[in-house]
Write a structure and sequence with these properties.
single chain, alpha/beta, TIM Barrel, nine-stranded mixed β-sheet, two-stranded antiparallel sheet, binds SN-glycerol-3-phosphate, binds magnesium ion
């Protein structure tokens, strides 16, 4: 499976223009012409995969406590901003498929829940995208989660996510049979970019919210960027670099 890698990913759904990790955000990204959207997936107290970034509810909703200890009946009654609900993963997938968006599904397990989160996301993803021309891109900071995704849904491309890229990153990419390296734009080095380029591995950097930083990163060889500033970069979203993921 091979597909074009967009230059821009709307970060956490709609970036800073919509409540993060909501369907309103995904819809907005599509309306603004983005070809790809990144969102975070964690398990609820009932084991349902949902879109949310933090392990706790306070920052992004009017709820309190741990996502992983909150039953669905309570979780889905919460306000995630502007009257939006926390979406189920299945609803985010439906939105991405409806709008033709490439989904970067970041597996974001609550601490200690790496295995069940990855198993659930991998199994569901394999089914959701079974007949899809363009597969999603699964990523995670959890190498255990990526290992599980590799074993349960090998056909779905994987990106290895690091805040600071370790010296042995290439061995990790190879072991996980990943197609991309995702990392923090603040810390990416020219050595890593050169090694990635020499090995044909695209580097995707988060989170880039100024034109100056974007220009510099693209010039240095970064392939794609995650942004919260959909307003700044909407005009560039249709430009593909001609790179392909997955061979
Ligand atoms: O996947 C890229 C980026 O989303 C990783 O950081 O904390 O925003 O999930 P975070
Ligand atoms: Mg994320």
């Amino acid at each position: 499976m091979s597909f074009p890698l967009p230059r821009w990913f709307a970060h956490r759904g709609g970036g800073s223009l919509a409540p993060e990790n909501t369907l309103a955000g995904i819809r907005l990204a599509a309306r603004m012409g983005f070809a790809a959207v990144e969102f975070d997936v964690m398990l609820s107290g009932d084991g349902t995969p949902v879109l949310i970034h933090d392990e706790t509810l306070e920052r992004t909703t009017n709820g309190r406590g741990l996502v992983g200890e909150t039953p669905d009946a309570q979780l889905f009654a919460l306000d995630a901003g502007d009257g939006e609900r926390i979406p189920r993963y299945v609803d985010a997938v439906a939105a991405c498929r409806e709008f033709g968006l490439l989904a970067n599904v970041e597996i974001k397990p609550a601490t200690g829940f790496e295995r069940p989160t990855a198993e659930t996301v991998a199994r569901l993803s394999a089914g959701f995208w079974q007949d899809a021309r363009v597969q999603p891109l699964i990523s995670s900071f959890s190498l255990e989660a990526l290992e599980i995704a590799r074993d349960l849904a090998p056909q779905i491309p994987r990106g290895v996510l690091f805040e600071r890229v370790p010296a042995d990153w290439l061995a990790t990419v190879r072991r996980l049979q990943a197609v991309a390296l995702h990392c923090d734009a603040e810390h990416v080095s020219d050595d890593v970019l050169a090694e990635a380029q020499a090995n044909g591995i695209p580097v995707l950097c988060y989170t880039v919210n100024t034109e100056k930083a974007a220009k510099s990163l693209f010039e240095r060889g970064v392939s794609a960027l995650f942004t919260d500033r959909l307003d700044l970069f909407a005009a560039e979203t249709s430009a593909y670099k001609g790179l392909h993921l997955g061979g």
